[in-house]
Amino acid sequence: MSLEVAVAAALFVGVLAYALFGGADFGSGFFDLTAGGARRGAELRTLIDHSIGPVWEVNHVWLIYCLVVWWTAFPESFAAVMTTLIVPLLLALLGIVLRGASFAFRKYSATLSQARTFGVVFATSSIITPFFLGTVAGAIASGRVPAGGYGDRWSSWLNPTSVFGGIIAVGTCAFLAGVFLCADAVRGGKPALASALRVRTIGVGLATGLVVFIALIPIEIDAPTLADGLERQAAPLIVCSFLAGLATLWLLWKERFALARLPALIAVATVISGWGVGQYPWLLVDEVRLADAGGAEATLQALLVAVAIAGVVVVPPLALLFRLTQTERWSR
Fold first, then answer.
1. Residue 242 exposure: Cα atoms within 13 Å on the Cβ side
2. 14, 195, 251, 285: which could join 65 in a potential S-S bond, CB 3.0 to 4.6 Å?
């Protein structure tokens, strides 16, 4: 395995972690937005605050990790993406900032109208952030980021592959959040709320799965290199995602919410991995190959050492935090 591939694999681990843990975090905004009025949605919004409160800031560790590894290991491709896709990236950043601020301010609102305003901002920004991040992935995967950067500021991300990427990102985030919220509701002694969330989560899962497979049609024309990879080397991952999604829906239907979390994570992880494997060996599809994109050899070696140290120092505390929040020990 070359140094470039090893570093890219380390980078993609961060992408997966942010998509799974940050995705479940962002997806809660969908259920907050659709919870209903102040009285009808109070129980669900309380559950959301309780579920994501201990971890909502922690998940951005993975985003920072991805950015640092990317610009250190593959600086030219990083510059190309930033100069071409600055609009959706700035909108995603705005969503992250507004989401964090409104989530905090809602708890200290002096009036109901203030709480509602901050709640709407929190929920809306929770949806637009994964959408714009998904459009960025679609732009890269469809070959719209030139090697020298400064591609078209609008058509690079306003295209079929990017739009479907954004919709799929929102759907997978909402699906993950729904599965985890169902389990949290049962653990919190709220079976009626879990039952209501169960129906909505199954609906979100079915809709998202349908969009994923519909998206394969325009991708054939709009992103032929990615489509070819999805049909070849990434095909087993797509099949695995489909089967894991079916298992999750079945477990939700049977109200086995705790067990449903694992196949839900697998379903989302494999569909995202399918994108990464599908565009290999390209870093910027049709423009820059991964083997040609790396920085200096000494830099890549030092970066792998730093990643290994970070894994030892950072991952165990994060694992403990998630274990505590998923067993309610943190609230005792």
1. 10
2. 14
Those residues with Cβ within 8 angstroms of residue 223's Cβ, 6 or more apart along the chain or in another chain: 138, 141, 142, 143, 161, 285
Phi-psi category of residue 233: left, alpha or beta, with phi > 0 → left and psi -120 to 50 → alpha: alpha
**How far, in Å, CA of 60 to CA of 68, rounded?**
12
How many residues does this entry show for the chain?
A: 332
DSSP secondary structure string for all residues of 262-305: HHHHHHHHHHHHHHHHHHTTEEETTTEEGGGT---HHHHHHHHH
Q: Residue 74, CB half-sphere, CA atoms under 13 Å: how many?
A: 28
CB atoms within 10 A of CB 191: 11
Question: Do residues 73 and 106 make contact, with C-beta atoms less than 8 angstroms apart?
Answer: no
pTM of the model: 0.92
3-state secondary structure 34-59: CCCCCCCCHHHHHHHHHHHCCCCCCC
- Topology at the third CATH level for domain 3-315: Formate dehydrogenase/DMSO reductase fold (1.20.1630)
pLDDT tens for the chain, residues 1 to 332: 689 999 999 999 999 999 998 888 899 999 998 888 777 888 998 898 887 766 667 778 889 999 999 999 999 999 999 999 999 999 999 999 999 899 888 878 888 888 889 999 999 999 999 999 999 999 999 999 999 999 999 999 999 999 999 999 999 999 999 999 999 999 889 999 999 999 999 999 999 999 988 998 999 999 999 999 999 999 999 999 999 999 999 999 999 999 999 999 999 999 999 999 999 999 999 999 999 999 999 999 999 999 999 899 888 888 887 777 766 554 45
Rounded Cα distance, 279 and 225, in Å? 7
Cα gap 154→291, rounded to integer Å: 29
Tokens 């820059």 correspond to what residue? 288
Which residues neighbour 246 within 8 Å (Cβ) at sequence distance 6 or greater? none
